Amino acid sequence: MIHLNANVDRFSGTGYANTYEKYRPQPPSVVIDILTQLAQVNRPRLVVDLGSGTGLSTRMWADRADVVIGIEPSADMRRIAQAQTAAMPNAEHVRYQAGYSHETDLIDECADIVTCSQSLHWMEPTSTFAEVARILRPGRVFAAIDCDWPPTMNWQAEDAYIRLDEECEKIGESRGFYRGVKQWDKEGHLARMQSSGKFRYVKEIVAHHTEMGNAERLVGLLLSQGGVAGLLKNGMTEEEIGVPEFRALAQRTLGDELSPWYFSYRVRLSIK
């Protein structure tokens, strides 16, 4: 797959991984309850998190499953995930290993739940769904978990965030920074699950949760977006991108005081 290395490289680097871990949200905990109930188990024997990144969506299962495995191709992401998880209670239930969504190196029908959080749009669907179906036990659950950007907190700050993020994507495309990179639209996840022939039932649900944030976090979230990070990785400065102006607007609208942010998630579910 010619896009594979390009997709992974877009998110490589310790600096990016640190930013991702510091500012990105964790999925709503209610998702654990929903997936466990749909899998019809009291406690999953194995949860597999594909494209696990820094482990935000992996370690949340630490005290809710016997074994949790994060599959992540980026060594930088895995190092941070391992360090963050090691400090947690029940860390012994969680481990991370190199691999891809289409090539996990796990045995057949081993998992009760397989998840992709903020990652399925970077994965080739046909081979990914085939691998998910291979490692899932019959009747068990696959879930693609995606956050809507930005979170809800202040309309002026949100509008500026969207505009700058979209502009960065356009600049990256026009300068050829994303050659070989391929992504699939999140809105098409459900239809692709349905048409794959690998699942007997599919459904989309929504969930949300609240985390606290301020101007610093909003700037950090922006820097964690692939389009912005891609420009910086290719040598552009924050000044060229327009980050200082965005930082000033975030400071004016949000300030340093923490306030509630509402993160909305779309969860596409499939039953094998």
How would you sum up this structure, described in words?
The protein has 272 residues and is an alpha/beta fold. The protein has a single domain (3-152, 182-211, 259-271), classed as Vaccinia Virus protein VP39 (Rossmann fold), CATH 3.40.50.150. It is built from eleven helices and seven strands. It has a seven-stranded mixed β-sheet with strand order 3-2-1-4-5-7-6. α4 links the parallel β2 and β3. The longest helix has 20 residues, at 155-174. The model has no long low-confidence stretch (mean pLDDT 94).
Instruction: Determine the CATH superfamily.
Output: Vaccinia Virus protein VP39
Amount of helix: 25-40%
Instruction: Count every beta strand, where a strand is a DSSP E run of 2 or more residues.
Output: 7
Give the overall shape, derived from the CA principal axes: globular
For the biggest sheet, the summary is:
7 strands, mixed
Radius of gyration: 18 Å
The oligomeric state is single chain
- Contiguous runs where pLDDT drops below 50 for at least 5 residues: none
The N- and C-terminal alpha carbons lie at a distance of 25 Å
Strand residue percentage = 15-25%
The structural domain count equals: 1
Classified by CATH, the class is Alpha Beta
The overall pLDDT average reads 94
CATH topology: Rossmann fold
- CATH architecture title: 3-Layer(aba) Sandwich
**Helix-strand topology string:** HHHEEHEEHEHHEHHHHE
Structural class of the helix and strand makeup?
A: alpha/beta
- Output the strand order for the largest sheet: 3-2-1-4-5-7-6
* Tally of DSSP helical segments: 11
